[in-house]
Design brief:
heterodimer; A: 315 residues; alpha+beta; Immunoglobulin-like; 6-stranded mixed β-sheet; 5-stranded antiparallel β-sheet; 6 helices; 31% strand; B: 657 residues; 3 domains; 7-stranded antiparallel β-sheet; 24 helices; 18 strands
Amino acid sequence: MPADFKWTEPRTWFRVAQPSGESTQLSRRHVYILPTRYGWLYALLLLATLTGAINYSLSMGFAMTFWLAGLGSVSMLHTWRNLAHLKISPYRAQPVIAGQPALFEFKVSEENNRARYAVNAMFQGQGQDCRDIPALADSIFKLTLPTQRRGWLKAPRVVFSTQFPLSLFNVWAYAEIDHNCLVYPAPGPHSLAMASPDMQAKEGQQHSLQGNDDFAGHRTYQFGDSPKRVDWKASSREQGLLTKLFQGEATSTLWLDWRTTTDDNTESRISQLARWVVDAENNHLSYGLRLPQLEVKPHSGSAHYHQCMTALALM
Amino acid sequence: MQAPSQPRMPHLLWLLFALSCTFGLHAFNLHYWISIAFAGLAIWRYLIEKYQWPYPPLWLRLPMTILGGVAVLGTYGSLFGRDASVALFAVMIALKLLETRNARDYIVMIMLGYFLTINTLLFSQAMWVSFAILLPIMALTACLIAVSHPNATLPWATQAKLSGKLLLQSVPIMLVLFVLFPRIPGPIWGIPHDAYKGMTGLSDSMEFGTISDLSLSSKIAFRAEFQSAIPDNSALYWRGPVLWHQEGRRWRMTSDTLPLKQESLEVFGSRVDYTITLEPHNKNWLLLLDMPIALPADAYAKHDLQILTKQPVRTRIRYAGQAHPQYKLGQTLGERERTLALQLLEDENPKTLQLAAQWRKDLAAPLDIVNAALRMFREQEFIYTLAPPRLGENPVDDFLFNIRRGFCEHYASSFVYLMRAAGVPARIVTGYQGGEINPNGNYLIVRQSDAHAWAEVWLKDKGWVRVDPTSAVAPNRIEYGISNSVSDANLLPILARQDYPILKKLYLNWDAINNGWNQWVLGYDEQKQLQLLKKLLGEKIAWGDIGLLLMSVLIGLMLVISYLLLRNKTIILDPLRKTYQQFLSKLGKIGLVKANHEGAIEFGERAAQRLPEQVSEIEAISRLYSDLQYASLDKTDNRHQTALQLLKQLVKNFKIN
């Protein structure tokens, strides 16, 4: 009986396989079995044929009924062993932005030299994946989970189940797996104005904006570009708004600063910063992030983006 | 909870294959239109799957279902009874094919398919049927496996193999249950009246032609094993219904309600002990060798020593018999019995009546009258034939004075008619005469073609004496059996004839196997069960112990099977993995642990950073391992083996400084 057993709490009636080290093993103590509704139907069928065999004194009727009864019992063992002794370890979980589904990947290893078929995994009620696991090999199960809040998202309890080979029995096990997915804050709405580069200039990047008059080219308008710099003439020729770029600006550095965010609410300020990080990343800008307790040096590229978002997620 | 998967073509093919096998077996039992309807519906369902046709809507399926029911009602005249209810069930299954779409429908269909397959045993439990139904059972199981695999990626051969494996693994359970499950004598409720249709055998009445018709059947009536030597063919008179009442062309048994005196029986000479395995004939008499001196269990003797059972014989039964070929039956003849034994409708067959009256006048002694009749059969042009012509208005006259061609019932009935007309009490006895010895197993096979009719006359001081008028016409019939005596033996079923010795030999071998099957598989009932257990476990065992025995044996068996199937096998790593594991454990000692998600190369690079002096070794091992693992080389390939040897050497020499 599980340690935290309580009559009133059905959730506590079952043992849950706990991680030991990196992986979690579905040992025989964690594997439960019950007939499915098809199992009951099968039992009813056998009862009917048995009654017929008795009534008509059909010796072969007895034999076939007993054979099918044997088949049911053997399938029970096969179903059980299709799940038992699997080892599950966390594999990957790419960070996601809050609101997008998190994708948890689990590595399920077969170590008993028996191929497993149609093993089903799901978080209770959500996400589902069904795969085969070859003998002495691994399969990666992918389960999605909706996200709402930024920060670490711990994988909930996973239910592994199978009904293979005959669907007469359902075998299942609960497993806690030490797996976490980082959820980045959701970027705020586009309407929030990014601190303008002009304003940034005053903040310490004066030198980079010196060549303001050296026209260097155009780029598509982005939120936060000063209306003064929109090239209206060029925009009317082309489709969409164009912003004039000046010498030195392509490499100009943005400082995305906690203090320049407009809202009072912490979460709103974080999502505003997240919006700026996403926009800056999309435009291949070099940007730095300044938070109350942390400063990320200006840089650009994917690794930098993830560093900034991680900082925001865990703030 | 399982992924909702749509079964596809492979699933459908399994299902259609299994059901085709089942309907194929049922084709012998059900009206042919049902097989045709199934074939049509199966093809329709196949085309739906193949060309993505729409499924027929309810407004089409509903009238089809009603039509199916009405058609069964029209064909069988009822929806109940064995034939009609199986037919209805089969038709409904065939129709249900058209609404079998998702996994749930398939599984329900498979269950119904199992039921329909087992239903074939209601019609025949012959050995070949019992083996043939394994094919649909296996196919249904394979289909269930396919449906249970939502990704539907298993190859069909794997499904078939797994199905066979599961069925084989369940054989021990089947055997234990078969032997030990307490056999409750049926029936629990009423059995449909048509359940025993198609059983052949003697009837409780006889007309001209009934026995010659029966003689055309090669079906087995019963088999007899003799504990003593098998008596001569001429002594093998197997007693069946005794017919007293003459009603024109028809002879009938006496009614059970008539209070007639039991005939006395004195026996002499040696006793014959034998055991009969009687095929079910749905009539309540047993066949025993003349004259029986002991009654099988649950049987009783009529006044004329016809042996009856309380229930019609509807399953194959086995009983012991004891007979004395020499006997004296019915010392005295009561007034009522004499009247019955002389009863005759006297308004027909004037020529016969005239002949009898003549004999009665000329020959006073009854024995002389009997001999006169036999002499007539022997000396005049009477022919023993399986295909007697139809007899006219006065059948006995027509037979005796005109046609003179007949089978045993013609001779027996006209003889008895003559005797009664001449004042000699006489009756007809029907049964079987002779049989064929099967040297494989030393038993006697008695077929319907051995059916026979003879006469018994009552003579003062001698009692009821058997007189076989057929023997006067065709002595070989009694000495050597029917195939040596009848003028048109080619009308006989091939197996009752003499002209195909090899075929006959094969048949006799086959019959010996069949006999074993009947005795030990089909005939395994509550008595056999108790008998077997007593033999195995001693006499003390009682009926009530069987349940306990079954439970303990079954639990023991399940434990063994569970152990064999579920034991957590010690993992035998393949040599490649084992070698690499040694390498990992060497690195593990200095805290370098390969993470699960890390590949061998990745980990090698990390290890090389920690151990810069051994970069080349680590890299070599990692690369070799990775190559061996992912190269699709056969494990027995020479190149694989040499590379593995190299890896083993490298790992062995690898030391952390």
